[in-house]
Amino acid sequence: MTRRYDDSVPNPPRSPSRAPEPSPANPLGGVHSTYPGPRAGISRDTSLSWWRRILPIIASHRVAFVASISLSFASLVFQTLVPNLLNGAITNAVARHTASLQRAVIEIIALGLLAGVSGVLSRHYLYRTAYEVEADLRSLIYEHLTWLSFSFYDRVQSGQLISRANSDIRSVQMYSTFAPLIVVQTFIGVLAFGFMLRIDPLLACIAMVVMPILYVVGIKMRRVLFPISWITQARLADVATIVDENVNGVRVVKSFAQEEAEINRLADAAERVAWAYVKDAQIRGQWSPWLQNLPQLGLALVLAFGGIMVIHGTLGVGAILAFNAYLLMLQAPFMMLGQLVMMGQRAKASAERIFEILDEHPEVVERPGAYDLVDVRGALDFEHVSFGYGPDLEVLKDFDLHIDAGETVALVGRTGSGKSTVARLATRFYDVTEGAVRVDGHDVRDVTMWSLRQNVGVVLDEPFLFSVTVGENIAYGVPHASLDEIEAAARAAAAHDFITTLPDGYDTVVGERGYTLSGGQRQRIAIARTLLVNPPVLILDDATSAIDVHVESMIHEALGTLMSSRTTLVIAHRISTIALARRVVVLDEGRVVADGTHDELLAGSRLYAEILAQTMVEGH
Ligand code: ADP
Ligand code: MG
Fold first, then answer.
1. Number of structural domains, the chain?
2. Ligand 1 atom 16 nearest Cα
């Protein structure tokens, strides 16, 4: 694995020895594509200009890139030689009969072939570089996104982030690969002008009169077009968001019978896009005739002045033809130079947004020298832990809880009291602000994240399923698990029976986010997924809230046998779930306010009685 970054920013933990081998049975088990991944990352030096920071990525494709630029240079040089040859051929072979026409024709054909072949090759290499740079940027960003901490996702709207990243990647890619090409074209323009000067300096200057006007008109047009194209993009993104919300939120839309309102909302957004496109077309329509016809004015000037010179015998007739061709060649760089500036501005803005993501440092990182947790017995300690999601609000204040290896503890508290937060700290989704979380006495900040999450398993209350088969979803953490192991985990989670009634059993593909399953079924698959990993410390965060009481008792039975050898923290509301634990801990205002058996707490803690009464009223 090559190093991705210039300096010693900690990289994502990626030890090949640990990464699960890709398994054909589990498409999510690992990365296995033919794309080898980016060869370089952006420069980490934020003081550099944006293109200097992107440069390492382009430099990593330098062979193809340099080949494409040189070939396009060669192709254009061949093209510029043709009018010059034409000039000689017409004046000397056709008009004056002093040279061989046949030779000139063969030479022109040969040059045309050379120009054509190098043009094809240069385009091939250019597109290859362009799309490889794009793929690099894309995987750098997505890789970085997977690496970032939970706190980042609390802050940003990930959907918008990703769609924005796509257009930003495109504009940086376009500029960084096509800008050099435009520069090459400009050089060629200079060369063409050189040839014109050599043929006739005065006529060359006359012919060039329109070029600065062309340049200015080009810039002016883009200056009005530029904001419109931004507006178009933003409005297209609006449409995409509405469509996305309507597809993902279709259940809400339909249940409130808001289809018509949504259709109107979409129609409005679509019309706003149409307005932007029409405006764009109008501007182009107004300006394009100038751009197209100004060069004709140049040609007319050449014909007028050149014609007089030919009549007076001071210029060969071929020169007029050659000038004609050169003027057409010069047109492109003069128009494109203006575009280059605009593309540059857009690419700069895009690159800065990309950097915003790539410069984001994950808050939870492995410290250098972190070691693996091995042979975990399962003692879990929260030592005077304080924590808040932001600087203002402390969720846990001096939270102190010690759980022995093999113990089962129920954590109870009002909604919003911080129970889920406790679970998130144990798996180090966030870092504590004060105090420490320890597994077997090891501070979770000292051990590798991989080994911590292998040993402390958490089942979240909102289980996320991938759009793959049920079996693959259960095997997510252990891609190599055998069918028997998967089944055993499913049985323990009381999921086996309902899975076998699905059309394809374990091979049934669950719909997007598991919507084809009921909430309780999703929760059972999520429990099976964690049980398969068989972590010594298991945390169930409201993981059975949507499961029927009698099914829950089946799970408890299975967990009961499993739990004897494992530490379990159950976050729950129902008495049936709480009864699973011999020890109950009540959390309030960020600290432990009561600790004992169910009966002790019922007698001694008013809050506990209150919470239980509450959940009974709610029907749990
Ligand atoms: P519980 O699981 O006990 O219902 P949580 O631990 O989920 O409570 O939340 C505790 C408090 O922290 C709540 O006030 C909640 O609003 C806040 N909170 C939870 N998650 C986040 C988050 N990702 N960002 C900011 N605040 C959060
Ligand atoms: Mg919660």
1. 2
2. 416
pTM over 0.85: no
Q: Which domain holds residue 351?
A: 50-358
CB-ligand 1 contact for 395 (6 Å cutoff): yes
Q: 3-state SS string over 16-29?
A: CCCCCCCECCECCC
Pair 250, 135 in one domain: yes
| CATH code for position 222 | 1.20.1560.10
Q: Which atom of ligand 1 is nearest to the CA of 389?
A: 25
Average pLDDT of span 539-555: 84
> Is the beta carbon of 545 within 6 A of some atom in ligand 1?
no
Do the domain assignments include residue 371? no
Structure tokens at 455: 């040993």
- Residue 38 maps to a domain: no
Rounded to whole angstroms, how far apart are CA atoms 570 and 421? 13
Higher per-residue pLDDT: 271 or 84:
271
C-beta 79 within 6 A of ligand 1: no
pLDDT at 180 over 50: yes
Q: Report yes or no on 67 lying in a domain.
A: yes
For residue 154 and ligand 1, the question of a CB distance below 6 A is answered with yes
Please name the residue ranges forming H helices in 200-209: 201-208
Q: Which residue has the tokens 């509450």?
A: 614
Please name the residues in contact with 349: beta carbons below 8 A apart, sequence gap of 6 or more: none
CATH number of the domain within which 395 lies: 3.40.50.300
Q: Evaluate if residue 113 carries a pLDDT over 50.
A: yes
Average pLDDT value for residue range 106-131: 92
Residue 13 has pLDDT above 60, yes or no: no
Q: Which ligand is nearest to the CA of 611?
A: 1
Q: What is the pLDDT of residue 161?
A: 73
Is residue 351 located within the same domain as residue 441?
no
Residue-level pLDDT at 6: 37
